[in-house]
Design brief:
There is one protein chain. This protein is an all-alpha fold and about 40 residues long. Helix content is about 90%, strand content about 0%. The longest helix has about 35 residues, at about 1-40.
C-alpha cells in the first residue's frame, strides 16, 4: 500500500514537471518566432 502511494506521488510530480517543461519549450519557441520576425536572430 505504501509503495503504491509513493509511486502515485512521484508520478504526479513527474507529470507536473513534464507539463512545465512543455510549457517552457512552447514559450521559448514563441519567443524565437517573435525574434525571428523582427530579425533579431542570435
Amino acid at each position: 500500500l505504501e509503495r503504491g502511494m509513493i509511486d502515485m506521488f512521484l508520478g504526479k510530480k513527474l507529470k507536473i514537471k513534464a507539463k512545465k517543461k512543455i510549457k517552457d519549450r512552447q514559450i521559448s519557441l514563441s519567443w524565437n518566432k517573435r525574434n525571428f520576425s523582427r530579425g533579431d536572430v542570435t
